[in-house]
């Protein structure tokens, strides 16, 4: 496999501890970080998909939860860790956490801070805000259990998956402290179980807030869909939060820019869209509305090197989910590369407001849009990964 | 009686609630085009606000910072005209674009952003088609496909909707087909009666929310239950006389503001800032008068003169609606009637407890305190309205929210005072029986005025 698929350099991945963590949870976090570091080093060495990394998720699971799920199959540990997290909650918190498995609840995600979602109106989402348990009510112990659950459901690569989410929460703290105010910060996120976590039947693990939507649907213990998966970030520039470097979405931008830089001028002009884009097309609420006609440059016209770059860009989103499932999904998208279109608008550097790129395949749909800052002055990205069959695990209404 | 007052207050609050809840009707977060429609008798005006950066991207027109020069304005008007079509039953309407200007706009969650504003006048071939049409508008979105356009009903006289912000729909890209579909607009059935009722409601809410108008009238009424002797407020006036005086003041204020409301609405120019400042002055004078009479016995005249000033302010609300013909006549009638109804409600809620409390020793400190607070509020407003913003003015604006509680407090105090008074009368009666003193008319006032205090010892 091409080394560009592994974004694990020599530096070990960092696990950011939330502000409120006690010494005990920091110990758990650093122990996990050590395991993650070992796992990612070994996988970087042999360059294969990371079954070891999955074990590390289970390892972090056993740090705080029942050690029953020792096998690498992540869905088992997700259910076990979901139960372990729920076990730390009060009755009132559980009432918030446990929501009905319905399309309305599943589709009730947004890129906006919850205060703006709750405000309602066009572009403002449901008007009632997110469902689920808000993270501002969580104790340190409950945060640790939640992080263990998220770690099991997400990828282990540096700046992707779990690490990306931890950096994302720190970035929102940065926004809160730098002009965003009380509507921002790690306490403004929501965790919800749509349906009951179980190895039989269907349920969705929903975690989201400003610029973040995690939507993992599990059917009979297996991952049935990991989309719509929204990732945006402000600040896009690297910042320091509590001594940690925060830059969760930069390698996505770099992967898209590298892909466009590798196209020749004929390919670029084929890939360039005539329309302009101020945002992604298929944001919240735009469900099952994929364009009937694909635009841009078709994958069959690409060289092998260029295809690897497409795959690398795709992997910056697919790699956000647990490593085993990510490998499966990536293999499917790879098999469809010849019929997958690349299209862009604006500049190829993907750095300025108005820059936009889309990967549109038989199954995969990824959009990345740079737009003006909201709290800060610099441009910031919105991105969504959707799957034309797998969004919401196939639930359409 | 108290229950009645609470019921009246509930109606008052209920009347104001929809106006408060209407605030964030369109949440964009990303700067967006808005088209706000004012539906008139013969045409519709559309106030269009476009984010400048999107407009430049889509039209290619370079828009300089600051004022827009004539050739740029012509280019923008031409571009908008190309992308703005309205029709009913396949009959094309006439669309004229004007008033191109640069501005700074803030939408919900966006912060200030540079924008271009324009006014489009939409005229149907047949006025009957005015209430149902297709808005084929795709400026900006033909190129910037994510730039949704929010169409909002700002006013529709015939449907009784004024100062509204109702979403009529969003012009957006159909992502599956890649098409931008025109927006069909079907306005609610309207008529003269709905329009009239809408104006009446507007008049009611204008007074319900107009803390300054309420405060002027109430402060002027504050000394009405008392008799002025020279420059001092002495005894309590007999109830009948107090009511007559209150009626005269209220009627004079009504006549005054009706005259200028009509003149201002019909086109007499109203200098808004001086009028607003004069209103603050009128409250200040009323407050001074309530402490020490400046014009004893001439309250109706003063109410009438200042009524002229308040009426000018009322008229700006109506003239901003740009009405004509039948709608204008019915609006004047309905809006004024609404003002009178609400004014009457306020007087009926506040006056009875004042008349009762005027018979107690508590009235003097109450009157002085209320006047002092009013004077401070009026000074804050006055400074605000001559361009010196200050925290007192801002705080005074919030007084309106407290007014229901003030009314409740007055009623509670009045009821407590009259119960107390009743018991005092009983005791006095017993004592008089014992010493064999007869009741007489003359002793009534003295007893009501002096005895409760004596009894309190």
Any overview of this molecule?
The complex is a heterodimer of chains A (397) and B (457). Chain A is α+β, with helices and mostly antiparallel strands. Chain A has helices spanning 23-46, 51-64, 74-87, 91-97, 103-106, 114-118, 140-153, 161-180, 250-261, 265-271, 304-318, 323-335; strands spanning 98-99, 133-134, 190-194, 202-209, 212-219, 222-225, 229-232, 239-241, 244-246, 297-298, 341-345, 356-360, 364-371, 380-387. Chain A folds into 2 domains: 3-245, no CATH class; 250-394, no CATH class. In chain A, strands 1, 2, 3, 4, 5, 6, 7, 10, 11, 12, 13 and 14 form a 12-stranded mixed beta sheet that branches. In chain A, helix 1 packs antiparallel against helix 2, helix 2 (51-64) packs antiparallel against helix 7 and helix 9 (250-261) runs antiparallel to helix 11 (304-318). Chain A is globular, with a radius of gyration of 20 Å. Mean pLDDT of chain A is 82; it is low at 1-75 and 120-126. Chain B is built from 13 helices and 14 strands. Chain B has helices spanning 2-21, 52-59, 70-82, 192-209, 211-221, 239-265, 272-291, 299-319, 325-357, 363-385, 391-397, 399-435, 441-456, and strands spanning 33-39, 44-51, 84-88, 91-92, 94-107, 111-123, 132-137, 149-156, 166-171, 173-174, 179-180, 183-186, 226-229, 232-236. In chain B, a hairpin with a 2-residue loop joins strand 13 (226-229) and strand 14. The longest helix of chain B has 37 residues, at 399-435. Residues 1-28 and 429-457 of chain B have low confidence and may be disordered. The A-B interface holds A 112, 116, 119-124, 275-282, 286, 289-293, 354, 369, 371, 374 and B 24-30, 32, 54, 57-58, 108-109, 111, 143-148, 150, 167, 170, 173-178.
